[in-house]
Each structure stands twice: as C-alpha cells, then as structure tokens.
Specification:
Elements (H helix, E strand, L loop, with lengths): L1 E3 L9 E7 L1 H4 L9 E15 L4 E15 L6 E15 L6 E3 H11 L29 H4 L4 H11 L1
Antiparallel strand pairs: 1-6, 2-3, 3-4, 4-5
Bound molecules: zinc ion (ZN) (2 copies).
Length: 158
C-alpha cells in the first residue's frame, strides 16, 4: 500500500485512516506466532511534511491478535494498542511511503514476550503433555523421584 507523498503539503498533513484485513498483513508476519483476528488492523494517524523529502509518520495501531498461551499453547486473544512515530525520508525519484512496511514493523517491535490465557494457567504436564487446566495426571507423584536419579544413586552406593 503506497502513499504518494507528492500530494502532501507542509500546510496540510495527510490523514491516515486505514482498516486492513488480516489477509492484507498476515503474509508479512511469518516470523511471529501471532495471528491477526478477523476484525483486522485499524490504523489512525498523520503524515506531516517537514521538508522536501522528509515526513513525520505518526499513527496509532489497534488490533486483536491471537497468540498461543506461553504455558499451555491455548489460543489466547491479545489486545494491541501501539503508538508509532518515525521520520521518513523519501526517495526523490519515487516519493512514496509504503505504509504496510511500517505497520508490520510496529507489530514486530511490540510483540509481547509472553501471553498467558490466564494468570493462573497451570500449563502442560512436562511428562505426559496433558493440559493441566483441563485434566490432572499422576505424573507428579510418580516422578517425584526421577527414575534416572534412582539409578545414579544405586551406582554411587556401590
Ligand atoms: Zn494457558
Ligand atoms: Zn502428566
């Protein structure tokens, strides 16, 4: 999505108001586990001309993303509200701003380190892999003493 900066004057900033579908952006987000939900991404802001080839790009991005819970992998909705401001220098030959590039950047820069389905998510059992929020297992009791350590103890004792 290219914005021709030649239509922007110092007196009159360009109003950015975009509603992007998840499908418009998802293909650029291949290094994230996040998925944009069906409401898409909303971008509201301005492009202000500073100089012949310098513009201030300023916008707020809002979206709902779906991430796997960091503990149990359950799909978890995450509300994004990110503000962005950057000085953009455009090429004199081709004075356009590729807005998608910046939107994708913003999504990456702000990607959450950890998303939890619930503060108290119990996660998956490390031994049998069941979701401990839904079921319980006996692994904890059985593995209280790891059999490998048991063997080691025998060896040390002999
Ligand atoms: Zn979880
Ligand atoms: Zn288990």
């Amino acid at each position: 999505m290219l914005i021709d900066t030649q239509i922007i004057t110092t007196e009159k900033p360009y109003t950015l108001s975009l509603d992007l579908k998840a499908s418009d952006l998802q293909e650029y987000l291949d290094n994230t586990e996040g998925i944009i939900n069906e409401k898409g991404v909303h971008v509201q802001g301005k492009i202000i001309k500073e100089d012949k080839d310098r513009f201030v790009l300023r916008f707020r991005l809002t979206a709902d993303m779906i991430y796997p819970c960091s503990r149990c992998l359950e799909s978890t909705s995450y509300t994004c509200l990110y503000d962005y401001e950057e000085i953009v220098k455009v090429d004199e030959e081709n004075p356009v701003i590729d807005i998608i590039e910046y939107i994708v950047d913003v999504l990456y820069i702000n990607e959450p380190m950890k998303v939890l389905c619930d503060e108290d998510c119990k996660g998956l059992c490390m031994h049998c892999g069941i979701n401990l929020n839904e079921e319980s297992c006996q692994c904890d009791k059985q593995n209280a003493i790891d059999p490998r350590f048991e063997k080691l103890k025998d060896l040390l004792n002999n």
